[in-house]
Amino acid sequence: MGSSKTPTKPAVLVVEDEPLLLMMALDLVEDAGFEPVEARNADEALEILQTRKDIRIVFTDIDMPGTMNGMRLAAMVRDRWPPIEIIIVSGHVKGGDVTLPPRSVFYSKPYDTSQITAQLHRMAALH
Amino acid sequence: MLDRLEALAAYDILNSPAEAEFDGIVQIATALCKTPVALISLVEADRQWFKARVGFEACETPISQSVCRHALSGTDLLVIPDLTADPRTRDNTLVTEEPHIRFYAGAPLITPDNVIIGSLCVIDTVPRPQGLEPEQREGLRALAAQVIVLFEARKLSQRKDDLFRRQKSLTANMRASANETLAAQEAGGIGTFEVDIASGILKPSPTFCRIFHVPVAASYPAAMLEAKIVSGDQGAQSNDSSRADASAALEVEYRIQTDLGIRWISRTASFVRDEAGRPVKMIGAVKDITIIKRAAARVQALLDLGDRLSHLTDTESMAMAAADLMAKALDATRAGFGIVNMAEETVVMQPEWTAPGVSSVVGLHHFRDYGSFINDLKIGNPVVIPDVTQDPRTSANAQALLDIDIRVLVNVPIMDQGRFSLVVFVHHNHPYAWSGEELAFLRSFGDRIQSAIARVHAEAEQQVLQRELGHRLKNTLAMVQAIAAQTLRPVKEREHVHAFERRLHALSSAHEILLERNWSSAPVVNVIDRTLDRLAVRDRVDVDGSPVTFGPKGTLSLSLVLHELATNAVKYGSLSGLNGRVAIGWHVEGRGDQAVFRFTWKESNGPLVAEPENKGFGSKLIRMGLAGTGGVDVRYEPSGLIVEMWALLSQLQQADF
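Structure tokens for the assembled complex are given below, as produced in the milestone run.
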């Protein structure tokens, strides 16, 4: 009682190398009521994950420059930070050759922003 | 001509019933030369008779109608690109009347005594100014050679059958006359034997010993000879117990392992019984039928190859299938393929097939450790080395090859974009006498593997290219979406922004469906399912229509219109309430160029609807209908909205935009 604390917004790490798409994704995450955190590639994303402990959801593209792509990043997140939820997007059609890590979802680009918003809310509600 | 008639008589083949081996050859010839007709034509004095035929009704024709008779004078292919233009054939009634044949190519059938008895020919009903491709010419010659091999084999086996029939009558005849027969059979390459059932001792004739590759001796334990039979055929032969109760099969074929590799043996036998009817002796004859067996195996392998390659789409399984078939046809001891690094001149041998007791060569090898034959492989030439100790390309390195059980080496290079990328190999661990037919077989086999794999490569490249294009297109659409999202951020009426975004998705998912089918076509039902799924209304729509496929133009048009219809239904129409439904139906009316695709969208159980006063983009798009010539009928009935659209099917199926 007494001291009211503003509830902190859950943080979503957006990983995207294309600036325009990154901007749109950050807006989407913010409009959905989350705190957006940006990373331009998988290496940057890993650094952030190691220092910030409040990331609840990783929202990543697949095709990115750097030492690993989004699929490897997702696999590593699932391995090292099991509680974090994962959303994967790509311009590639999802085919049999794409194996998603457990508890991750895939959306094809261009994605429907309302579907992603709903997905973020569902994932946040799990915690 | 007398030579020809004599040769035909010796084969005793005229008017014989159809045989699968020859039917197979004409089938291959039509496939090879891409003609509707192929014939094995034997030319008599007054007629030509067909031993096998594809695409031709009559089993013989008068000599006056024969084109093949013109092939009897030359020793190479006779190719007539346009039969109406050639003085020898322009008056032929097969040319001037039904079936109006136009193109002819025939390879002469030449017996081992150099007599031409007819031809293996292919016929088309359209002229071919260019004649045959070089590999078709080569293939046709090789198939013609196969026909003769089979004729020879047939003759041999007929002689064998005759001899065996005589052999069977032995038991009933006097022993004295049998001796004469035996002498005759020894001369004909037939070995005879007699097994004493009680002791298990076999008395062989000298020819029997030669056929079994054992020193000539008066007797052998039967079990010792039985042990020479290869493991796969063990059980076919007789043994002590099956002889004791006379249950052994009387006519069998099996393979034996000899110093010179595997040989095929045909054996026939009968039992001699005592007065009580108990079997006391088994007597019989054996013959080496390896040549006949291999000839048949080669024809079968060529047929199987075409069949197997057409079902496979990755080069490695194709290479393995080819190696497997080659090994069977040539009684090899090892077969498989390797992945080549041309710059390093190395090959990584993949898990291969080996005969029992033969080691594996899986792993990395340097070509130069085994000789200089990589020079031939690099330029795409198959390498056939009948004995590695004798061939100049390998003799200096023979020991390295012998150490890994390679005495005979066959390598067929597979090129990928001009680079030597895979090698199909067949090895024997013993010297192997190659016949001309076998070498021709190997060349033709190699050509077929190479061309089949080249086809698969071309298809794969095209797919990669299309996937890449699709990927870029989707990324571009994503960028358009991002630009619009940024530009329209200040717009207060978010509904319009969302409508734009959803239309972009409708377009994108239409592209996605097309991409899955190589950008060529999409089944109407898939387009409908995908669009409705995306809007999460699929379970409220009844879909019923015949299987119809659209081209890219029709697919995009239908996706966009359907998106608007469904969006409107969710906002204002039957899908805005809980109980409303939609029925989608379509069918094709008429045929050919005039066929019309007719599509109906029928809402029911929704709120009362009226024609909207303001026509938005969606309504306009719906009123445009499907692509091209056609029409739209929009009716706001009390039961709900009904939209009918129709368009020429040919326009909806058009391949380009």
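Chain A touches chain B through 16 residues (CB under 8 Å). Residues 1-5 of chain A have pLDDT under 50 and may be disordered. Further analysis is deferred to the final report.
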